[in-house]
Design a protein that fits this description.
The protein is of the alpha+beta class. 40% of the residues lie in helices and 17% in strands.
Length: 108
């Protein structure tokens, strides 16, 4: 039952993230000095906090790895992954933008 609950909360979190990123159109990319920036990379920790702070999300929130800086576990608004976990009161787990990594992490 716990796995089903994790999947349910994961789906809710993904819907919120999709809403924040323009209805899930992650195919939109922005080019800047040769780097590709996905739409999910523009979502800040503050966006997540504002949208999910009063929701019962269970124990874990899965986010796309592209929401964080490439070489650090930090969002565009300079809030770290650890800070977000503390503020939200749950574990925040970044997943690669591929299905296998996502499934592996939710089934842990």
């Amino acid at each position: 039952m716990r796995s089903l609950q994790k999947i349910f909360f994961l789906i809710i979190a993904m819907v919120v993230i999709l809403a924040l990123t323009g209805c899930g159109s992650s195919s939109r990319e922005y080019i800047s000095d040769g780097d590709t920036i996905t739409v999910s990379g523009l979502v800040t920790a503050t966006d997540i906090i504002d949208q999910l702070k009063d929701k019962n999300l269970g124990e874990t929130l899965y986010i796309p790895r592209s929401m964080l800086k490439a070489d650090e576990e930090i969002f565009l608004d300079n809030i770290t992954l650890e800070n977000l976990s503390d503020i939200m009161g749950l574990e925040v787990v970044p997943c690669l933008n591929e299905g296998k990594d996502f499934i592996d992490k939710i089934l842990k």
